[in-house]
Amino acid sequence: MICFENVSVTYDGEASPTLKDIDLTVPEGELVLLVGPSGVGKSTLLGAVSGLVPHFTGGTLHGRVTVGGRDTRTHPPRELADLAGTVGQDPLAHFVTDTVEDELAYGMESLGLAPAVMRRRVEETLDLLGLAELRDRPIATLSGGQQQRVAIGSVLTPHPKVLVLDEPTSALDPSAAEDVLAVLQRLVHDLGTTVLMAEHRLERVVQYADQVLLLPEATMGPPADIMALSPVHPPVVALGRTADWDPLPLTVRDARRRAAPLRARLADQAPAPARQAPGTTPALTPSPLPDVPSSTRAGGFSLFGRRREAGAPGAATAAAPDPSAPLVSVERLAVRRGRVEALRRVDLQVRAGETVALMGRNGAGKSTLLGTLVGTITPASGTVRVAGLVPHATDPRTLIRQVGLVPQEPRDLLYADTVAAECAAADADAGAPPGSCRALVAELLPGVADTTHPRDLSEGQRLTLALSVVLTARPPLLLLDEPTRGLDYAAKARLVTHLRALAAEGHAIVLATHDVELVAELADRVAIIAGGEVVADGPTAEVVVSSPAFSPQVAKILAPGPWLTVEQVEEALR
Ligand SMILES: Nc1ncnc2c1ncn2[C@@H]1O[C@H](COP(=O)(O)OP(=O)(O)OP(=O)(O)O)[C@@H](O)[C@H]1O
Ligand SMILES: Nc1ncnc2c1ncn2[C@@H]1O[C@H](COP(=O)(O)OP(=O)(O)OP(=O)(O)O)[C@@H](O)[C@H]1O
């Protein structure tokens, strides 16, 4: 159904091709999973199928890509719309209408489907993707995960023969991801739809794949064969490799069947805490917490995406911190966003050196809570204090000394024309030695070019740049909203090492994430938010294992043992 014949893609200004001599065939009615390290060219390959590469991205494509027999070089994306539905990494770029219901109907309207058919499919899709309550909502007011569901729903309604999906579950909560994958599997099995999907969180998807395509080699084969050699693989495969299980399990169920001897070996041991020893320094030499920068960044944006009032004097002064007091103190917090009561009766305390994960369904209120901590969202009632300051009433230049946010959309933080310029501005803002931010980018994700425009970076590269900009400022409180989209497992591991080291130095970290594996590796505590309220708050090991949706794979495989990560098991077996 999809054919690549000797395909190479070279972006303008690049010396070497991003994709080189790719030959492959995706058969009709199969779900093929595209995997590979961050920045290897997965989105480029998907873009060549949907026709976005090179029609919209620029660059040169050599060779031939056909979808259902149509050559994507001579058929621009609109001439493929009846055949292939595409969801890219940025749902906002995808939307053409303003409300959820209109967006679900739009693709069918352009294809001229009968109104009765359109009505039925919109209703079906609203139910399938849990969007019924949001049907009249303006898309701009939805949470990140809610937007991603709408983007997926809008390509499902026209029933295309081919679906091209770029990290379709990256902003979804674990159960929403399962729902979406179950829908895709049903389309593949019942309607013979062909799905080509790139995804980093293989623990969510690998069991649904008929074949896996690994870049940069462009090797394609059965999932177990490819996972045996792939540098990117989910924890279940890493555990299988550690325990020498053959054949390699791809699902928790398969692994549990083999795990009895391993469980017995581990029975009298306790996991080492998944933390770096205190005093271990991060790869970058720590600089003192920055003073208020005298320069403002070009465009006047602060590190948390708010326009600075140039020259405005500080509205509040930082009180000398009391070391015994929590760095973050939230009491009886309520927040309204339009008609929505996004948070109510929220209490949360975070101390210096603690890492707290906020988890919960899409739309639960996680980003809203981070927004109140960084002062971009004003409470309706209750109190929020960060280092003794009231964030929404504090001058950004004062607050920036205490708190930095990597937003869910890293683009919101980036405005320079090149990676190098972005990093230089971050160093200047933070008062850090020149080169600090650039060194951090290189440490977290090697291979990012200095001269690339942040717009042209891959998803993982762009997130790494945004993370580096904020981490360079080294604020006492670090807020990270879904900090692993687009990151491969190795980049995630390096980020975890860096964040652990910062926590060991006394920085507090609050992250909102659906990445249960990251939480298992990193967080001391987990707070689960549901319907705007904190419904659980406790040590990671206790909270995540009490809910299958938030449990990492290792915990499920080795239950009732207390193990959360492959790293802990490896250490115990040494
Ligand atoms: N329009 C463009 N112009 C120039 N370079 C580009 C453009 N789009 C992508 N690139 C570069 O091509 C490389 C591959 O990017 P691509 O987005 O295809 O990677 P990816 O495998 O999807 O990454 P991720 O896993 O982070 O999403 C990256 O180095 C990126 O900087
Ligand atoms: N500007 C807005 N106007 C109205 N409602 C909004 C607005 N922004 C967010 N909301 C609503 O507030 C609620 C909380 O949204 P929030 O973004 O905090 O959720 P979240 O837990 O971060 O979700 P996700 O996991 O999908 O990112 C959701 O119901 C969302 O639809």
From TrEMBL:
PROSITE patterns xrefs: ABC_TRANSPORTER_1, ABC_TRANSPORTER_2
InterPro entries to which the protein is assigned, alphabetical: AAA+_ATPase (IPR003593), ABC_transporter-like_ATP-bd (IPR003439), ABC_transporter-like_CS (IPR017871), ABC_transpr_CbiO/EcfA_su (IPR015856), ECF_ABC_transporter_ATP-bd (IPR050095), P-loop_NTPase (IPR027417)
Domain ABC transporter: 2-242, 328-556
Protein keywords: ATP-binding, Cell membrane, Membrane, Nucleotide-binding, Repeat, Translocase, Transport
Region ranges (Disordered): 264-301
UniProt keyword Ribonucleoprotein present: no
Compartments (UniProt record): Cell membrane
Record's bilayer topology term: Peripheral membrane protein
Biased composition (Low complexity): 264-278
GO CC aspect terms: ATP-binding cassette (ABC) transporter complex
Domain of life according to the entry: Bacteria
GO molecular function: ATP binding; ATP hydrolysis activity; ATPase-coupled transmembrane transporter activity
Family affiliation: Belongs to the ABC transporter superfamily.
Function: Probably part of an ABC transporter complex. Responsible for energy coupling to the transport system.
Protein known as: ABC transporter ATP-binding subunit
Organism: Streptomyces laurentii
